[in-house]
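hey so i finally got around to running the thing on that chain from the lab meeting. sorry it took forever, my laptop kept dying and i had to restart like 3 times. anyway pasting the input first so we r on the same page abt which one it is
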Amino acid sequence: MNAAFELFVDSFWDILLPGLLVTIPLTAISFTFALIIAVVVALIQFAGVPVLSQIARFYIWIIRGTPLLVQLFIVFYGLPHVGILIDPFVAAVVVFSINEGAYCSETMRAALESVPKGQLEAGLCAGMSWSQTIRRIVLPQAFRTAFPTLGNSLISMVKDTSLAANITVTEMFMTTQRIVARTYEPLLLYVEVGLIYLIFCTVLTKLQTSGEKRLQRYGKR
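ok and heres what got predicted. didnt touch it at all, straight out
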């Protein structure tokens, strides 16, 4: 029992450190790019640009219809066969961004469509261009509507980053696997890494709740 407790304490920081230095940055960078992709794809559909809308729908169909792990393997293990070599961390960022961007784009599209059309018409009548109206009036309201769902997507991405271990990214889960291979204590260590993921997600959940309350107060002004 004492040996197990000592292993738990000793391995905690060995697992937490890659979480802070790899898992969290991987999540933050990927989600930032995902949001950019989501907004662009959603606006293309919202504007109804004929050819680009079809391309956007095709992108969403492909990404949402294939497993994230398969996408990781295609980019990291498949592309080198055609001469494209990508660093593991960069490959993970690319795949997570593209994957999450597809899901978040649907969230943003629905949020954009929930804004009353009169808001867009009022902006145009006030002399603003379409892009100015979208940027100043429509998008802020859409983001307020989409915030809870986007927050859930961010929390989900924190957990999905564990898949990056499959392409040799030394994040929390891969670090845990290495410690398990050395100590032969899979139950203890996998429970421990699960608890650390839970801590990260709990903090994000608290931030999400706080953000929602602030947005509700802002909307009532």
